[in-house]
Amino acid sequence: MNEYDVTIIGAGPAGSTLARLLSEKYKVLLVDKRSLEDFESTNSCEKCCGGLLAPDAQKVLAKLGLGVPKEVLTGPQPFTVKTIDFDNDLERFYQRHYINIDRERFDSWLVSLIPSHVQCRFSCHYHSFEDEGDLLKLRLRNGDGEFLVKTKVLVGADGAISRVRNQAFASAPQPEKYGSIQEWFHTDSKVPYFMSIFDQSITDFYSWAIQKENMLILGTAVPAENGVKEKFEKLKLKMKEKGYNLSAPFKRRGTLIFRPTKTNQINLGNSKVALVGEAAGFISPSSAEGISYALRSAISLAESLNSDFDNFSKLYKRRSKSLKRNIVLKNLKSIVMYTPFLRKLVMKSRYLAMEVSE
Ligand SMILES: Cc1cc2nc3c(=O)[nH]c(=O)nc-3n(C[C@H](O)[C@H](O)[C@H](O)COP(=O)(O)OP(=O)(O)OC[C@H]3O[C@@H](n4cnc5c(N)ncnc54)[C@H](O)[C@@H]3O)c2cc1C
Questions:
Q1: Count: domains in the chain
Q2: Cα dist from 267 to 9, 21, 262, whole Å
Q3: 295, 310, 319: which is closest to 18 by C-alpha?
Q4: CA dist 83 → 79, 208, 348, 350, 355 (Å)
Q5: What does the mean pLDDT of the chain come to?
Q6: How far is 318 from 166, CA to CA, in rounded Å?
Q7: Is residue 357 one of the residues assigned to a domain?
Q8: What's the pLDDT score for residue 148?
Q9: pLDDT (tens digit, 9 = 90+) per residue, 10-69?
Q10: Residues 98, 101, 103, 105, CA torsion sign
């Protein structure tokens, strides 16, 4: 049975960045159920994601010495956000610096940067672990069937619906659960802006629309118990009334978003099982932007493991304090964004708003 120092479940931005930054002195295994080997040939976005790189994510990539290759980009590149506020019947444009990407290619590109001393297993599912004292025994499955490996440290980088987190920390506090749906519609129109849509009768979070080549993606995140599908249909109806052509969706994807409202809902794990990225609960509670958090938490964990393997857990908690503070600040920002009266004041004032000819 193969034995590793660190086994990472999930090769999203968090897992692949961690794998890339871990010291060569460790024997590392990276496992993902997706096939992410060849970023130049992937062209379908299977991950339920808006695929916008926000300035925070751009900054972390810059700090990592990385620039996004052109194969990862998609169009149009939006320079503005159109804010549609159904609660107050207002619309405004604001300048924003997003980069529009093909999310599947972005993940595959990050995987392509992983050094060869890391062993990667794609199309391989993590099933469960057993604690055997000094080591954890992991049950994995690929096309050939089930196999076992042993590891000193298991890292859950397996996203919002983290199996690792659910198995290791079943009774830990959970962030607020939202159901998210995105649908893709063919469009001949040009929608050169990102749309953020506010409507309390649909969700206390927000909905969005973004163009990717000849597709318009419409998405929403609704409290999980609140009839997510019905609310999505209502959103579509309202957007159709605004003149957007949303008939015959090309495809639909759904997932969960765990929106952290308190810092005790962020779970970094323990000395044997660590959590990073969305598995740890890191995602912006104001915008659902998660790529920057995935990258930053992976950097913190890699630095902690590289500097003191036996005490990495304590170090990781210390190094993640600023990220947790950032979640607190985003929750404060949410109060203004998601209280219709306060949002109305801001939008009515036209503060930072710009005129755009449509
Ligand atoms: C609808 C929606 C829109 C979003 N839009 C944006 C956006 O525009 N910009 C932004 O910055 N963020 C966005 N986010 C958030 C962003 O997608 C996540 O925060 C980010 O992907 C988290 O990265 P991660 O590496 O932690 O996890 P993920 O990217 O979710 O990666 C987890 C990986 O684990 C693998 N995995 C899971 N379970 C197993 C298993 N059992 N065995 C093996 N492998 C497994 C998965 O295949 C996946 O590759 C959005 C989220 C949603 C839901």
A1: 1
A2: 16, 21, 11
A3: 295
A4: 13, 9, 12, 12, 12
A5: 95
A6: 23
A7: no
A8: 98
A9: 999 999 999 999 999 999 999 999 998 766 555 444 678 889 999 999 999 999 999 999
A10: negative
Helices 340-349 & 321-338 angle (0-180, nearest 10): 80
Residue 118, domain extent: 2-39+50-347
**Which residues are CB-contacts of 160 (< 8 A; sequence separation ≥ 6)?**
255, 256, 257, 258, 278, 279, 283
The length of the chain, given as a count of residues: 358
In this structure, which residue's CA is closest to atom 44 in ligand 1? 32
Using a 6 Å cutoff on CB, does residue 253 contact ligand 1? no
Q: What is the CATH number of the domain that holds 144?
A: 3.50.50.60
Specify the pLDDT at position 44: 46
| DSSP H or E segment with residue 157 | none
Mutational pocket test of ligand 1: of 197, 278, 282, 286, the residue with most ligand atoms within 8 Å of the beta carbon: 278
Q: Determine, yes or no, domain membership for 180.
A: yes
Which residues, other chains included, contact 328 with Cβ-Cβ below 8 Å and sequence gap of 6+? 263
pLDDT at position 173 is 95
Instruction: Note whether residue 243 is domain-resident.
Output: yes
Asked whether residue 352 is domain-assigned, the answer is no
From the CB of 180, is ligand 1 less than 6 Å away? yes
Query: What's residue 185's pLDDT?
Result: 95
Per-residue pLDDT tens digits for 257-297: 999 999 999 999 999 999 999 999 999 999 999 999 999 99
